[in-house]
Write a structure and sequence with these properties.
- About 80% of the residues lie in helices and about 0% in strands.
- The chain is mainly α and about 190 residues long.
- The protein has two domains: about 1-60; about 65-190, no CATH class.
- It starts with a helix and ends in a 6-residue tail after the last helix.
- It is found in: Membrane.
């Protein structure tokens, strides 16, 4: 569990700099330059992510079961992951109304993904991993929303055609991950 927690601290800590230390971040970008900051940020994120994957794998080898998830938890998780996938697509497809409405669809998608995995998992490692991501995503979303309000940021309305692209890409990504990649990468097949 120590490796998992260390990875979470590094990864989410790196991703929390803008939440808790915006002036420090700005100073570092000025000192290192945009590319230097991005390089540091990327290396720290990769190290943290690697430790999370390794630590979660270690913890899964010796699970501490806190509760047995209900059968319906998998179904709720599947639905929430579908919505999360559409939100993630909305973050990257320009000119869509979902981004205009949500403002920060990637962080909202991470919230739903973390919540989904808490419905489907009852181990201590899962609660630590997905609980940490849920807390971070809520804090990140609230901070970004306040930053947008302070700067009077508005996101373009988008078009129905772009919304359709978001939904198709989100559904395709969800299906690919749920039916192929989740089992291959994580060793758990959500649909048996």
């Amino acid at each position: 569990m120590t490796v998992l927690i260390l990875g979470l601290l590094i990864f989410l800590g790196t991703h929390s700099v803008r939440i808790v230390a915006e002036p420090w971040r700005t100073a570092q970008i000025a000192r290192l330059g945009p590319n230097g900051w991005k390089g540091f940020y990327s290396v720290a994120s990769a190290v943290g992510l690697g430790l999370i994957v390794w630590g979660y794998g270690l913890a899964r080898g010796h699970p501490v079961v806190l509760w047995t998830p209900p059968t319906w938890g998998r179904h709720v998780a599947a639905l929430l992951m579908l919505l999360s996938s559409v939100l993630l697509a909305a973050a990257y497809v320009p000119g869509n109304r979902i981004k205009a409405a949500v403002a920060h669809p990637m962080v909202a998608g991470v919230q739903l993904s973390a919540l989904a995995h808490l419905f489907a998992n009852g181990t201590l490692a899962a609660v630590v991993l997905f609980g940490a991501f849920l807390v971070w995503a809520v804090a990140s979303f609230m901070t970004a929303w306040r930053r947008d309000r302070a700067a009077n940021t508005r996101y373009p309305a988008g078009t129905l055609a772009r919304d359709a692209v978001v939904v198709v890409v989100g559904l395709a990504g969800w299906a690919l991950f749920a039916f192929v990649l989740h089992g291959w990468l994580i060793g758990v097949r959500p649909f048996g």
